[in-house]
TrEMBL record, chain A:
The keyword Heme does not apply. This is Pyruvate dehydrogenase. The keyword Nucleotide-binding does not apply. GO terms for molecular function: oxidoreductase activity. It comes from Cephaloticoccus capnophilus. It holds the Pfam family Transket_pyr. SMART domains: Transket_pyr. Keywords: Oxidoreductase, Pyruvate, Thiamine pyrophosphate. Residues 4-179 form the Transketolase-like pyrimidine-binding domain. Its cofactor is thiamine diphosphate.
C-alpha cells in the first residue's frame, strides 16, 4: 500500500470526486493559481481548469454564503477556508443559512456543501488563527462535523463528506498535512460517524480525535514502556454524527476514561462525551471521567509555551496517570 | 397585487386576534415590486428575499392556504410550521426564501446565480433586500463576487425609506444603487408604485442578465403603510400625514386600477369581483389554517438532516441527535 501524506490524501479525495461528479467544484482563497496556501490543492487547477478550481477574494461571508446558495440549486461546492479560524466572519452563512435552511423550509431544500480547512493551534500564529470550533459547529443541528487524524481517514471521510447531502464541516490540521500514512490505491469510503480504535488496550480508554490522536499514541507507548499501562485509543473521527457506541464499548472493557481534545474546556466536545459516558456507563466506571483540554485562555503566541497550552504527549501521560489513581 | 393585499389584511386581523406568533412584517404598499419582478420570471429564473416575504410568495404563485397555515404554525404550512412568517420557501417555484437576517440572503442569491451560470442555464437570479440591508458587509461581498465573476443576478433594493424605524437619510450615505459604480456594475432606479415602470426596468436588466450574464443593482422606490412589523408602534419616525399622502396619491393597486379603468380594460364590476375573490380566498385560508393540525413534538426533529429524513439512503452511522 502506498504511503502518502495527509495533504496528498486530501488532494486525492478532491481530485477523485471532482473527476467523478460534474457538480463538485472547489472554491477558496488561493486554491487555484497559488496551488493552495498549504498546497493541498496543488496541481488541481492545471488538471481540472478554472471552472472547477476557483480562486475567491478574501471574502469569507460572501463566498461561503455563495457556496451555500449554489448547493441549494444542486452544486456540490467544496469551500476551503484558509483557516477554520476565519469561520467567525462567515458564521451567519454557515450556522444560520447552511444549518437552518433545510429546517426552515420544512425539508424542501438541502445543502450538500463541504466547508474544509485546517483548525488547530500549535503553529505560533496567536489567538485569531488558532481556533478549534468543532464544538461550536456541532452545537448546531443541521451540520455534520468531521475531524480526521490520519491520511487514510482524511481521504475516505472527505469523499463521503462530498457525497453527503447535508452540510459537512471538515476540520483538517496544518500540523498533520505533512504526516504520512498508508492509503490504498483503490477507491474506498469511510462512513461519517464511525469511530476507529487506533490502539487496543485494557487499562484505560483515551477518547480523542484530530492531532491529539497522534499525541495519544505517542503517550501510550511511554505509558506502556515506563508504567506498564495498556491504553486503548478511540479516535472519534466524526463529532456529529457521533459514534458513542464504540466509546461505551471501550469503557466497558477498561473501566477508566480520559478524554483528550484540542479544545477550550468550557462546553467542549469532552463535556458532551463525559455527560454521555456517565449517563450510559456509570456502573462500568472505576474512577471519575477525566479530560485533558487546551489550557483555558486565548491561544498564546510564545512558541515554547504554546506547546504546553495544548495537549501534548507529556501532558497526556500526566493526565493518564491521574486517571489511573 | 390585490391577492397579496387581501391576504395580508386578513393575516393582520389574525395576528391581532393572537392566532399568529412572533413577528409579522407586512408588505402592504409595496405590492407592485414583487408582482412586477416575479411576473417576468422564466423557468430558469430564481428569487430569494428577506423577511418581508409574503408578497413574493404570492407573486410566484403560492396558494394562500399553506401561507396562512404557516403563519398559524400549522403542519399544513408551506414550511410545515417550522419557518413562520419570515421563512416562506417554494423551491419548486424557484423561490428560495424567506430569510430572517438582514442582508444574509444576498450571498445565497449570488450562489443561485453562480449555479445558473455554472450549469449554463438561460436564467437569472433576483436577490431582494430592503434599504436597511445595503450597509451589511455580506451584501458588499456579494456585490463584489457578482461583478468579479459576471454572475447573472439583479440585486433588487426595495427602498421603502425606512430601515425599521430609521430613515434612509439617517442610516445610509449616498444613493443606494449608485454604490454599484464602485464595483463597476450597472445600476438603475425606478418607481415602485407603478407596476409598468417596475416591469419595464426589470425586464431590461433581466434580459441583459440572462443573455450576457451581467449583474446590476436596481433600486425600486416604494413605501410600506404598516410598521416595520405589526408590533412596531409606527409613530416615532414618520407622520400619519406622510403615510396618508402615499395612500392617497401613490398606492400601487389604486394607480394600476385607475389606469386600467381609463384604458377601458377594467370595469367596476370586475374590480369588485377580483376583490371579492381575493377576500374569499383569504377567508378560506383562515378556515383552512384553523382546521389544520399542529406539528407534533416528533416533528421537531424532522427536516433537520436530509439523511435522517431519508433513512433508507443514509450512508453515515452514529448519533445525529442528542438529548
Amino acid at each position: 500500500m502506498p504511503t502518502i501524506t495527509y495533504r496528498e490524501a486530501v488532494r486525492h479525495a478532491l481530485a477523485e470526486e471532482i473527476e467523478r461528479d460534474e457538480a463538485v467544484v472547489l472554491l477558496g482563497e488561493e486554491v487555484a493559481q497559488f496551488n493552495g496556501s498549504y498546497k493541498v490543492s496543488e496541481g488541481l487547477l492545471e488538471r481540472f481548469g478554472p471552472k472547477r478550481i476557483v480562486d475567491t477574494p478574501i471574502s469569507e461571508a460572501g463566498f461561503i454564503g455563495m457556496g451555500v446558495g449554489a448547493s441549494m440549486l444542486g452544486l456540490r461546492p467544496v469551500m476551503e477556508l484558509m483557516f477554520w479560524s476565519f469561520y467567525s466572519v462567515a458564521f451567519d452563512q454557515i450556522l444560520n443559512n447552511a444549518a437552518n435552511v433545510r429546517y426552515m423550509s420544512g425539508g424542501q431544500i438541502n445543502c450538500p456543501i463541504v466547508i474544509r480547512g485546517p483548525a488547530n493551534g500549535g503553529t505560533n500564529v496567536g489567538a485569531t488563527h488558532s481556533h478549534t470550533p468543532e464544538n461550536v459547529l456541532a452545537n448546531h443541528p443541521g451540520v455534520k462535523v468531521v475531524v480526521p487524524a490520519t491520511p487514510y481517514d482524511a481521504k475516505g471521510l472527505l469523499k463521503s463528506a462530498i457525497r453527503d447531502n447535508d452540510p459537512v464541516m471538515f476540520l483538517e490540521n496544518t500540523l498533520l498535512y505533512g504526516e504520512k500514512g498508508e492509503v490504498p490505491e483503490d477507491e474506498y469510503l469511510i462512513p461519517l460517524g464511525q469511530a476507529d480504535i487506533k490502539r487496543e488496550g485494557t487499562d484505560l480508554t483515551i477518547v480523542t480525535y484530530g492531532r491529539c490522536v497522534l499525541h495519544s499514541l505517542a503517550a501510550a507507548e511511554t505509558l506502556a514502556a515506563e508504567h506498564g499501562l495498556s491504553v486503548e485509543i478511540v479516535d472519534l473521527r466524526s463529532i456529529r454524527p457521533l459514534d458513542i457506541d464504540t466509546v461505551l464499548h471501550s469503557v466497558a472493557k477498561t473501566h477508566r476514561v480520559l478524554i483528550v481534545e484540542e479544545q477550550k474546556p468550557f462546553c467542549s466536545v469532552a463535556t458532551q462525551l463525559a455527560y454521555m459516558i456517565q449517563r450510559d456507563a456509570f456502573d462500568e466506571l472505576d474512577a471519575p471521567i477525566k479530560r485533558l483540554s487546551t489550557i483555558d485562555a486565548p491561544a498564546i503566541y510564545s512558541p515554547p509555551v504554546e506547546i504546553e497550552q495544548l495537549p501534548n504527549p507529556k501532558r497526556i501521560i500526566a493526565a493518564a496517570l491521574d486517571a489511573m489513581e | 397585487m390585490v391577492r397579496i393585499r387581501r391576504f395580508e389584511e386578513r393575516s393582520l386581523r389574525a395576528y391581532q386576534a393572537k392566532k399568529i406568533g412572533g413577528f409579522l412584517h407586512l408588505y402592504i404598499g409595496q405590492e407592485a415590486v414583487a408582482v412586477g419582478c416575479c411576473s417576468l420570471m422564466g423557468k430558469d429564473d430564481h428569487i430569494i428575499t428577506a423577511y418581508r416575504d409574503h408578497g413574493h410568495a404570492i407573486a410566484v404563485g403560492m396558494e394562500m392556504n399553506p401561507l396562512m397555515a404557516e403563519l398559524y404554525g400549522k403542519a399544513t404550512g408551506c414550511s410545515k410550521g417550522k419557518g413562520g412568517s419570515m421563512h416562506y420557501f417554494a423551491p419548486e417555484r424557484n423561490y428560495w426564501g424567506g430569510h430572517g437576517i438582514v442582508g444574509g440572503q444576498i450571498p445565497l442569491g449570488t450562489g443561485l446565480a453562480y449555479a445558473i451560470k455554472y450549469k449554463g442555464l438561460h436564467g437569472a437570479a433576483m436577490a431582494f433586500m430592503g434599504d436597511g440591508a445595503v450597509n451589511q458587509g455580506a451584501v458588499h461581498e456579494a456585490y463584489n463576487l457578482a461583478a468579479l465573476w459576471q454572475l447573472p443576478i439583479l440585486f433588487v433594493i426595495e427602498n421603502n425609506g425606512y430601515s425599521m424605524g430609521t430613515s434612509q437619510e439617517r442610516s445610509s450615505a449616498g444613493q443606494l444603487a449608485k454604490r454599484a459604480e464602485g464595483y463597476d456594475m450597472a445600476w438603475d432606479a425606478c418607481d415602485g408604485h407603478d407596476l409598468y415602470a417596475v416591469r419595464a426596468t426589470m425586464d431590461k436588466y433581466l434580459r441583459r442578465a440572462r443573455e450576457t450574464s451581467a449583474p446590476a443593482i436596481i433600486e425600486i422606490h416604494t413605501y410600506r403603510y404598516r410598521g416595520h412589523s405589526v408590533a412596531d408602534p409606527d409613530n416615532t419616525y414618520r407622520t400619519k400625514e406622510e403615510i396618508e399622502a402615499y395612500r392617497q396619491t401613490k398606492d400601487p393597486i389604486q394607480n394600476f386600477q385607475n389606469r386600467l379603468l381609463a384604458e377601458g380594460v377594467l370595469e367596476d364590476a370586475l374590480i369588485k369581483e377580483i376583490n371579492d375573490a381575493a377576500r374569499a380566498e383569504a377567508e378560506a385560508s383562515v378556515a383552512f389554517s384553523e382546521a389544520s393540525p399542529w406539528p407534533t413534538v416528533e416533528d421537531i426533529q424532522r427536516d433537520v438532516y436530509w439523511e435522517a429524513d431519508n433513512p433508507s439512503q443514509r450512508t453515515s452511522t452514529g448519533q445525529l441527535f442528542f438529548d
